[in-house]
Amino acid sequence: MEEEQLKKAQQEEKQARHKHGAKADKKEGKRKKEKEKKSKKHKKKKKKKSKSSGESSEAEWVEVTKEMREAEAAKEKLEEASMVGPAIPEYLLQKEAALTDDHTKHVNYGKDMLRGEAAAMAAYIAQGKRIPRRGEIGLSSTEITEFEKIGYVMSGTRHKSMEATRLRKENQVMTAEEKRLLSGFTHDERKKKEEIVLQQFKSFIESKKTKN
Questions:
Q1: 107: Cβ contacts below 8 Å, ≥ 6 apart
Q2: Which of 136, 141, 127, 140 is nearest to 162 (CA)?
Q3: Three-state SS for 198?
Q4: How far is CA 178 from CA 22, 74, 108, in A?
Q5: How far apart are the C-alpha atoms of 91 and 99, rounded to whole Å?
Q6: How far is CA 160 from CA 147, 151, 170, in A?
Q7: Percentage of residues of the chain with pLDDT beyond 70
Q8: In the chain, where are the structural domains located?
Q9: Contact partners, residue 110, CB within 8 Å, separation at least 6
Q10: GO molecular function terms here (predicted)?
Q11: pLDDT over 90 for what percent of the chain?
Q12: DSSP 115
């Protein structure tokens, strides 16, 4: 009887161990499945990120194909065909603009001139007004000329040395302004002549095209 009871107890222990092992195996299987699912999700996220980065890089970098180059070349040819004759280089246009600016802005008024004195005199000359002299404060140029016509002598014209320096400075400014105006006039005239010659060439080329 005791042996039978021992056998039964051993069998029950074996069954309990078997059940416990099966449960543990099931738990491990579940854990493995969950890990696999997580790893798959992580891989999918990585793929999505790589795709998005690839798309952004494709948007930033565009390869220049032969068709694009041919289209650009065709556009340039059309622009050149619309122009009659060779185009003026850009560096020559820039030089011309710089020369015109120098003629208009920077004028050499000569020596022995105070800062801003020559520019102020030139402003009065450009307006066609009389240049005010030393001691002529509180009166306009028109009023001074009227007083001088009547017979008044202004304080600036009494001293011979002051009068000489004033006349010298005025003459310097006048000559510089005359030179500037003449240079601008010659520049404009040269441009007009060039435009006339260009128009003549254009009309000649167009007449040849129509004949052909």
A1: 122, 176, 177, 179, 180
A2: 136
A3: helix
A4: 114, 51, 12
A5: 12
A6: 20, 18, 15
A7: 55
A8: 109-211
A9: 118, 172, 176
A10: chromatin binding
A11: 0
A12: T
Residue with tokens 């208009």: 104
Residue 173 burial by Cβ neighbours in a 10 Å radius (0-12, 13-18, 19+): buried
Please tell me the pTM assigned to this model. Answer: 0.33
Q: How far apart are CA 183 and CA 103, in angstroms?
A: 7
Residue 23 predicted with pLDDT over 70: no
What single-letter amino acid sits at 148? Answer: E
| Helix 160-211 with 117-127: angle, nearest 10 deg | 60
Instruction: Tokens for 158, please give them.
Output: 């009494």
Determine how many CB atoms are found less than 10 A away from the CB of residue 104. Answer: 12
User: Which amino acid, residue 72?
Assistant: E
For the record, the structure tokens of 178 come out as: 């005359």
Cβ neighbours for 202, distance < 8 A, ≥ 6 positions apart: 84, 85
Identify the residue whose tokens are 């066609």.
128
